[in-house]
Amino acid sequence: MTGRLDGKIALITGVGGGMGVTAARRFAAEGAKVVGCDLHDAGAKETEELVRAEGGEISCFGGVDLGDADAARAWVDAAVATYDGIDVLYNNASTQRFAPLEELSVADWDFTMRNELDLVFYTVKAAWPHLKNHGGGSIINVGSIAALRGVEFMAQNAHSTAKGGVISLTLQLVVEGGPHGIRANVISPGMTETPNTAPLLADPPERMRKVVLDRIPLGRHGRPEDVVNAAVFLASDESAWISGTNIVIDGGASVLG
User: Fold this and answer.
1) Where in this chain does the entry annotate a coiled-coil region (predicted)?
2) Which of 57, 152, 176, 241 is deepest in the core (most CB within 10 A)?
3) How many CA atoms lie within 13 A of 190 on its CB side?
4) What range does the domain containing 23 cover?
5) How far is CA 109 from CA 165, 166, 191, in A?
6) What's the first-to-final CA gap in the chain, in angstroms?
7) Residue 164 and residue 157: Cα distance in Å, rounded?
8) How many structural domains is the chain composed of?
9) How far apart are CA 186 and CA 193, in angstroms?
10) Which residues contact 88 (CB under 8 A, 6 or more apart)?
11) Residue 3 lies in a domain
12) Would 240 be classed as within a structural domain?
């Protein structure tokens, strides 16, 4: 690693699995002091042990329900108490429920909003005064190409709406944060392999193959490192004059319409 994040204090949500593990490892390897959290204690502990074994600096908090505003604030305050500031807030955590519109329950809709949109607002709101006091910083929110187009192979009503909200919220953060040196950007992945999607990608339904996988110009689905590479750039000083972007990482699939 090249030390692109040397000395930066990076808060990363959802580090207990999927892209979050990759993010925690890479940020620490690039020199960041990582404070992670996850809903699951075991996953948070495993990531903490893994990163420390690799020589990185990290503190992980398990059992953190970011869909609860008080819990989100407590985690952010604990991070600031540990390192006396925030340079990067990487909102990676999310979970959702899928169903066609006629079958999607109000409870499933509310669950998805809570765990894909509300939790971003809560962590940003908690981190905002600390970012201002620290002289600014970088907020990285994870969107989705589902917020930019319809998805043919799976009904994603609530997910698409929540991620659209994340993108819109980010644009307002750009305006309000600019005078304080706070940058905000979005990363919108396409079909990316995680523990949740791995079984689907191992044996994809024919419709998914036809309308998604066979139409990726670069010829493969995404990997966690594809997303994290962009996050490292947005967290680093290399992107010091970049705010308000939405980096789509989908192998070129979305340009096909």
Assistant:
1) none
2) 57
3) 23
4) 9-252
5) 14, 15, 22
6) 37
7) 11
8) 1
9) 19
10) 5, 8, 9, 10, 11, 27, 32, 137, 138, 139, 140, 235
11) no
12) yes
Domain presence at residue 257: no
Token look-up 């994603």 returns: 156
CATH number for the domain harbouring residue 216:
3.40.50.720
**Could you report the per-residue pLDDT of 213-237, keeping only the tens digit for each?**
888 899 988 899 999 999 999 999 9
**Cβ burial 156-184 (10 Å sphere, 16+ → b, else e):** bbbbbbbbbbbbebbeebbeebeeeebbb
What predicted TM-score, i.e. pTM, was given to this entire model? 0.94
107 to each of 104, 116, 120, 143, 185, how far by Cα in Å? 8, 14, 19, 22, 30
C-alpha 106, offset from chain centre: 25
Any alpha helices (H) in 54-152, and if so which ranges? 69-83, 106-113, 119-133
DSSP alpha helix (H) spans, 135-197: 157-177
CA gap 91, 235 in Å, rounded:
12
Token couple for 249: 């990482």
Amino acid code (one letter) for 173:
L
Instruction: Flag whether 159 is in a domain.
Output: yes
